[in-house]
């Protein structure tokens, strides 16, 4: 009887090692997903900060809201139209803002940021959209904020 059970301890040890290895691999995969989600959250937070930053700038410069228009047409994340390239003083915040966006968010460019200023009754509606693309992903992400500003 003892002879027929001779390798059972070795077999149990191999199964235990297999289960432990699967658990360790699952933890490594969980860590990788956690890091990816943390990086995505950082980019989303940066995009939110940048969009709200230009809206705040527009609140302080209410008399020149139409001048902030930047790539006001086209589909999402493939904007068309003209950039804010006027040599006037109010364009400096837009060009500086676009530079800041392209520095902080990967895969962003001047034509992947949009500022649309439209009339809504006696107020102006401002929509700021920021697009970026993570280096490891094929699709783009976007963040948009809309505000109504009384001129």
From TrEMBL:
**Which key words are in the record?**
Membrane, Transmembrane, Transmembrane helix
Q: Which domain of life is it from?
A: Bacteria
Membrane-spanning residues where?
9-30
* Keyword Membrane assigned: yes
Listed name of the protein: Type IV pilus modification protein PilV
Q: Which organism is it from?
A: Caenimonas terrae
């Amino acid at each position: 009887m003892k002879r027929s059970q001779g390798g059972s301890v070795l077999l149990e040890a191999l199964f235990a090692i297999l289960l432990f290895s699967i658990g360790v691999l699952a933890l490594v995969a969980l860590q990788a997903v956690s890091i990816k989600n943390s990086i995505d959250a950082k980019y989303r937070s940066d995009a939110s900060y940048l969009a709200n930053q230009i809206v705040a700038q527009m609140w302080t410069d209410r008399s020149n809201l139409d001048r902030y228009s930047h790539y006001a047409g086209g589909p999402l994340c493939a904007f068309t139209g003209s950039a804010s390239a006027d040599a006037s003083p109010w364009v400096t915040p837009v060009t500086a803002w676009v530079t800041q966006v392209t520095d902080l968010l990967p895969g962003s460019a001047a034509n992947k940021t949009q500022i649309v200023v439209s009339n809504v009754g006696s107020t102006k509606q401002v929509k700021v959209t920021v697009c970026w693309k993570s280096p490891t992903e094929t699709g783009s992400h976007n963040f948009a904020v809309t505000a109504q500003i009384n001129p």
